[in-house]
Design a protein that fits this description.
The chain has 22 helices and 10 strands. It is mainly alpha-helical. The protein has 3 domains: 140 residues, no CATH class; 174 residues, Isoleucyl-tRNA Synthetase, Domain 1; 136 residues, no CATH class. The strands form 4 sheets. Strands 6-5-7 form a 3-stranded mixed beta sheet. Strands 9-8-10 form a 3-stranded mixed beta sheet. It has a two-stranded antiparallel ribbon with strand order 1-2.
Length: 525
């Protein structure tokens, strides 16, 4: 569809700018057909124009426009022979040829989606027509959609309009850059959201203050031998270190693929969230090595998008400590010289599972407590508010195995392939139906649908594993302070297996059976 219509494209016209058609001078070559290798000219323009974009003055090599014959262009761009009677010295032509061959081909051509069907396609055709050597053809092209403002088309007449200068004056440079990165990737229209820009100003200000306070708290002397603190890692230090490693992997991949929204997600937003969980779990006492490891990775990954903020806090808070400390790693005053972060170890799946598990359970506990306070009922409109019942005890039922029919479902699903987006492939429905009678088959399909939804959101492994990758009882016991943060009313917390005798007095049999590996049942009383 992109190429087929070009046979209808008129390659000449009778008016306007363009190169005269050599065999019929009443026509000029249509501009898109004629001008889509101009990127080659960029490589030598500084020799010919010397900084004057309008060509009003002679460039540093003293070359005049009339000196640029077809033979000259062939020599520079196509390794042609030195032209006879050439007004330009071979030494100067060699300089321009070297410059062209140094910079060409284009590693990437960035343009808008509206130019895919004309300008960019013609650029490929023209490169192929001029250069038989395929190594000089464009290596890649990246296209983006249009920009909208607050989910509406930009329009001066409606007042829904911002220039880059307006953005910088209103939000500052780095908040503008972060909001642009967050606006979206690919061919979909990118949305510049002013609420995001305003929130980003606050995020950066808060983050700067956080950095200053936590470095002073963790490293009060301003210098440290990090070997000792690295040797004192506990569970949450390992969890956070593993999360930093995974963020580096994900952010780097998305930077490489020019997906800045995703790079921002993994390299900034997710790390910001995890470090808050880390400090809560550590009672606000960060391990100095982990803290600096986080800050170095965070600031280096922020630097391409928010360079002014990253360099400022690096120079004021982070680099001075690293410069005076021992056994941490390489540190440069200029953040641009700082090596890109690399994972300190292979991905620890168990640590990732623990983090996801604790965050999920914490959310369940909060929702469960609110529901217990209201008895699951919505407050009556206009009526007096009912006194919330006193909730002082929480019981967490942990299951180490699925019920037999659910286990059988997962074993069947594990025999099927999943695509890159975690969608199951093949006729799993009839396979499940054939494995159970009609009554149990209905329950099985409901369970399967639920697990396949988890697979799409969290991955195949999270949905289809038959047991947790760690001891859930131990994990909850060790992290009660994190899980029950800001819940002073809860005086007693019990964590028991749903297969134990103690579990028989908790809830109803149906609710007890709701507990599954990695999905405990939570009760309040």
């Amino acid at each position: 569809m992109v190429i087929d219509w070009l046979k209808e494209w008129g390659c000449t016209r009778t008016q306007g700018l363009g190169t005269i058609l050599p065999w019929d001078e009443q026509f000029v070559i249509e501009s898109l057909s004629d001008s889509t290798i101009y990127m080659a000219y960029y490589t030598i323009a500084h020799f010919l124009q010397g900084g004057d974009i309008n060509g009003s003055s002679i460039g540093p090599l003293g070359i005049k426009p009339e000196d640029l014959t077809f033979g000259v262009w062939d020599y520079i761009f196509k390794k042609g022979a030195y032209p006879e009677n050439c007004a330009i010295s071979q030494d100067n032509l060699d300089k321009m040829r070297h410059e062209f061959e140094y910079w060409y081909p284009m590693d990437m051509r960035v343009s808008g989606k509206d130019l895919i069907r004309n300008h960019l396609t013609m650029s490929l055709y023209n490169h192929a027509g001029i250069w038989e050597d395929k190594s000089l053809w464009p290596r890649s092209m990246y296209c983006n959609g249009y920009m909208v403002l607050n989910n509406e088309k930009m329009s001066k007449s409606s007042g829904n309009f911002l220039t880059i200068r307006d953005c910088i004056e209103k939000f500052g440079c780095d908040a503008t850059r972060i909001t642009l990165a967050d606006a979206g990737d690919g061919l979909d229209d990118a949305n510049f959201d002013t609420d995001v820009a305003n929130a980003t100003i606050l995020k950066l200000s808060t983050f700067e203050k956080w950095i200053e306070e936590n470095i002073k708290k963790a490293i009060p002397d301003g210098k440290l031998d990090f070997a000792a603190s690295k040797a004192e890692f506990d569970l949450w230090d390992n969890i956070f270190e593993n999360a930093i490693n995974q963020s580096i992997i994900n952010a780097t991949q998305n930077f490489d693929e020019i997906k800045y929204k995703q790079a921002l997600k993994f390299g900034f937003y997710e790390l910001q969230s995890i470090k808050e969980d880390y400090l809560i779990a550590k009672s606000q006492k960060a391990n100095p090595f982990v803290l600096m490891r986080f800050l170095v990775a965070q600031l280096v990954m922020m630097n391409p998008i928010a360079p002014h903020f990253a360099q400022f806090v690096w120079n004021h808070y982070v680099y001075p400590v690293l410069k005076e400390s021992q056994n941490f790693g390489e540190a440069h005053e200029n953040l641009n010289d700082q090596p890109w972060p690399t994972p300190s170890a292979e991905h620890d799946k168990v640590s990732s599972d623990r983090l996801a598990y604790l965050k999920d359970i914490k959310g369940q506990i909060r929702m469960g407590l609110e529901k217990a306070k209201t008895g699951g009922k919505k407050p009556k409109k206009g009526g007096p508010a009912e006194a919330a019942p006193a909730i002082e005890k929480c019981t967490v039922l942990v299951a180490r195995e699925y019920p037999e029919f659910q286990r059988k479902c997962l074993e069947i699903l594990n025999t099927f392939q999943f695509d890159e987006e975690n969608n199951i492939q093949g006729d799993y429905i009839n396979t499940i139906k054939d494995a159970f009678d009609k009554k149990q088959g209905g329950l099985a399909m409901k369970f399967v649908a639920f697990q396949l939804n988890i697979a799409k959101e969290q991955g195949k492994e999270a949905a289809l594993r038959l047991e947790a990758s760690f001891d859930e009882v131990e994990c909850i016991e060790q992290n009660k302070a994190f899980l029950f943060e800001n819940m002073p009313s809860i005086k007693e917390i019990s964590v028991i297996l749903n297969s134990s005798e103690d579990a028989q007095n908790v809830g109803t049999p149906q609710l007890r059976e709701a507990a599954a590996p990695s999905k405990p049942a939570i009760f309040f009383s």
